[in-house]
Amino acid sequence: MNKILPILLTSWVFLNAGLINAIAIVVNETPITLYDIDQKMITEKMTKEIAVSSLVDEVLYEQELRKNTISVDIFDIDNYIEKLAVQNKMTSLEFKALVRQQEDYDKFKENIKKQLLHQKLIKKIAGGKLTIASDEDMNIFYESNKEQFKIADTIDVIAYVSKNKKLLNSIKINPMLQDKNVMVQSISLKQSELNPQVKYVLNTTEAGKFSAVFAQNKNYNMFFVKDKKDVETISFENVKDKIFQNIMKTREQNYLKDYFETLKITADIKVLR
Q1: For the chain, which terminal residue's Cβ has fewer other Cβ atoms within 10 angstroms, N or C?
Q2: Alpha carbon distance 45, 180 (integer Å)
Q3: Minimal CA–CA distance to 148: which of 248, 81, 247?
Q4: How far apart are CA 226 and CA 228, in angstroms?
């Protein structure tokens, strides 16, 4: 009996493992396992129904990338980052350094890769099929969404400067924390007088929030944005390109959504479990 029990337990483990890794759905010959579904539900806090639908969408998306021989290499990513740097009036090295201080740089590059794959796929399947945004379209968007194009001329902040990055991150957690190795100063900053790096940090930080910690002048710096004042609306001409991109992005997303809904209907999807 003592010898039989371990054998039974081992058999149960293998059977259970087999069930977990069992194929639940096949999408155009690509399998989705029960484990895939469970992991999707756990990591993204989804119901089973939504997780299954999302996984099917992902499989169809990957199949379309392969079908259209779409890929992104390191040169594509570097060129995109270079454009972002230019838009923010920084060198590529300055922009990369700032991103590294604010987030995981590998994740940042991975997100760019996903964006570029998305753009290439849209260009491939929707090229010439989208209505190009007219001046009238852009004017309507501008008048209806002016809140998106406001910028503060004056920004009231509490500035923190230290040689120790950990101290600044500790203050984020406990704003009441005081340390002689952190210089603290309440100041008002004028948008027109800011260098590109500080301008980027402040314009991407909401009022009532701490900015990311960033390096400048051989110190670590951080702001708590108290208030953004003298808010002005950026002129239409200065945001025209951005509006065009926003409108076209929405049209592309809608086209892609309809495209994949049709693809899902016509796909060979077999539900096994």
Answers
A1: N
A2: 43
A3: 247
A4: 7
Residue 63: which residues within 8 A CB-CB, separation 6 or more? 27, 28, 30
**Which residue shows structure tokens 């753009």?**
119
For helices 48-67 and 236-266, the axis angle rounded to 10 degrees is 100
Distance of alpha carbon 170 from alpha carbon 151, whole angstroms: 30
Q: How far apart are CA 34 and CA 145, in angstroms?
A: 44
- How far apart are alpha carbons 260 and 267 in whole angstroms? 10
How far is it, in rounded angstroms, from Cα 226 to Cα 192?
19
Beta carbons within 8 Å of 68's beta carbon, 6+ residues apart: 121, 124, 125
Q: Smallest Cα–Cα separation from 171: which of 210, 218, 227, 127?
A: 210
Residues, the chain, total?
A: 273
Q: Is 54 exposed, middle or buried (0-12, 13-18, 19+ CB in 10 A)?
A: middle
Which conformational region is residue 194 in: left (phi greater than 0), alpha (psi within -120 to 50 degrees), or beta?
A: beta
Closest CA to 158 of 189, 190, 186, 198: 186
Report the C-alpha gap between 46 and 38 in whole angstroms: 9
Tens digit of each residue's pLDDT (9 = 90 or more) over 28-47: 999 999 999 999 999 999 99
Identify the H or E element spanning 151. strand 150-162
33 pairs with which residues across the strands? Answer: 23
